[in-house]
Design a protein that fits this description.
Elements (H helix, E strand, L loop, with lengths): L1 E10 L3 H12 L4 E4 L13 E2 L1 H10 L2 H4 L5 E3 L1 E6 L2 E7 L10 E3 L2 H12 L5 E4 L3 E8 L2 E9 L2 E12 L6 H5 L4 E3 L4 E9 L9 E5 L2 E7 L3 E9 L3 H7 L1 H11 L17 E3 L4 E3 L3 E2 L2 E3 L14 H22 L4 H35 L7 H8 L5 H8 L12 H8 L1
Parallel strand pairs: 1-2, 1-11, 2-8, 5-14, 11-20
Antiparallel strand pairs: 3-7, 4-7, 5-6, 9-10, 10-11, 12-18, 13-16, 13-17, 14-15, 15-16, 19-20
Length: 411
């Protein structure tokens, strides 16, 4: 069986994995990132790049190039409850370089970060390489057993970083304990063509028994139709036309375009999970991103929390990894740093799930919650949700070095 060696093996080429790989390689740590797919093209993945992530890109000096990619800027979040529109969060209050959310397909985000990583000789990205199991010796994780185009491949490493999402093979192989938090809903994602006469803004629409999220993609709407947890078969039994009629009722301008959805094959189910590991690590292994804590799609914070985890990984681990001294005490520091924002974000998501989403899906008569009315009537208060959504509870900053700049200084 073929075998290679690296300092760090990152399992999963998502936001957490690629950012961790890029930042560690940038600091001089040899990293191999493995991704089971041949490309990053997955439809209906999270694509809200928040001000916290844009700020990190500014600190890294890669923001200008990133913003040249096609994206939409959203400076505030609003919702339509019944026939009334409410302004909920205003990002103009933030003390950041970018006072907006950038909506960008996740594959563009991932391609861009991988391009930045490839500028460093210590960075390696292996596509079409699937993690099968962890390699353990004397109670320590020492690598990953994988499968690529050539067959089985052993990747030996000093540290394995599990960043392979909410259905993580890594955390399952490591038998790490998962605490289920729960979610009352799932989401049906679909595309509907967008006409020039359609509204411009991304908006959430709430009415009795229906929640519809519509993200402006210029040429089309990315629509999230929220349903009660586990009720997909009931909606299928009611027929596709029933879903179309509910969408038209919420967004009448889709009357001529909702027929883009021709069958349930045009709809992707997002099974919503909210959970977290009680312990993110064991000797030789650390989980981050959705592998450590699956997030609800509420407020679109998942990508950004994952990126924050990756920054903490680089900040805390680059030096021990370079010195060959990285042990469980260093891995524990990463969890201790990131546990608080994870718990608080999930707590806020559960609060919204239980007090807004679940009652809306179960209601027969819709009334705007009190806080929506308060934020709508008192604009300065919109800074509070803007900070919580845009920056989070403990935003990270880049403290790991850039070896290219270091070499330049030494010369």
């Amino acid at each position: 069986m073929a075998e290679i060696k690296t300092n760090v093996c990152v399992v999963g080429g998502g936001p957490a994995g690629l950012m961790a790989g890029y930042l560690l390689a940038r600091a001089g740590v040899e990293v191999t990132v493995i991704e089971k797919h041949g490309d990053f093209f997955r439809d209906f993945r999270g694509d809200t790049v928040h001000p916290s992530t844009l700020q990190l890109m500014h600190e890294l000096g890669i923001l200008e190039g990133f913003l040249k990619l096609p994206h939409q800027k959203v400076s505030y979040l609003s919702g339509q409850i019944g026939d009334e529109k409410f302004m909920m969060a205003d990002f103009s209050y933030l003390n950041t370089k970018c006072k907006y959310i950038a909506f960008m397909p996740q594959w563009d985000f991932l391609n861009y970060i991988s391009e930045q990583g490839r500028k460093y000789p210590k960075f390696s990205l292996r596509m079409n390489t699937e993690a099968l199991d962890l390699i353990e010796e004397n109670g320590k994780i020492v690598g990953v057993k994988t499968l690529d185009d050539q067959g089985e491949l052993l990747i030996k490493s000093n540290l394995v970083i599990g960043a392979d999402g909410r259905n993580s093979i890594v955390r399952k192989s490591a038998n790490l304990e998962v605490e289920e938090v729960g979610a009352p809903m799932d989401v049906l994602w679909m595309r509907i063509s967008r006409k020039p006469s359609d509204p411009e803004e991304t908006i959430g629409r709430f009415d009795a028994g229906i929640i519809l999220i519509m993200i402006n993609r210029n040429e089309y709407w990315q629509c999230g139709f929220v349903i009660p947890k586990g009720k997909l078969e009931e909606y299928k039994a009611q027929g596709l036309q029933s879903i179309k009629e509910r969408i038209i009722a919420m967004a009448p301008f889709t009357t001529d375009t909702v027929n883009d959805i021709t069958s349930f094959d045009d709809i992707k189910l997002l099974t919503v999970k909210v959970d977290r590991l009680t312990k993110w690590y064991k000797d030789g292994l650390l989980c981050i991103g959705d592998s450590a804590h699956a997030m609800s799609p509420v407020a679109g914070v998942g990508i950004n929390l994952a990126v924050q985890d990756a920054v903490a990984v680089a900040n805390y681990l680059y030096l021990p990894l370079l010195k060959g001294t990285c042990d469980e005490s260093h891995l524990r520091q990463v969890q201790e740093r990131r546990s608080y924002p994870t718990r608080m974000t999930q707590r806020a998501q559960v609060l919204i799930q239980n007090n807004v989403i679940k009652p809306t899906l179960e209601s027969t008569q819709m009334k705007a919650p009190w806080f929506a009315q308060v934020f709508n009537s008192l604009p300065p208060l919109r800074a509070l949700p803007a900070n919580l959504i845009g920056l989070g509870f403990r935003p990270e900053h880049i403290h790991s070095p850039d070896t290219r700049k270091t070499v330049g200084v030494n010369k």
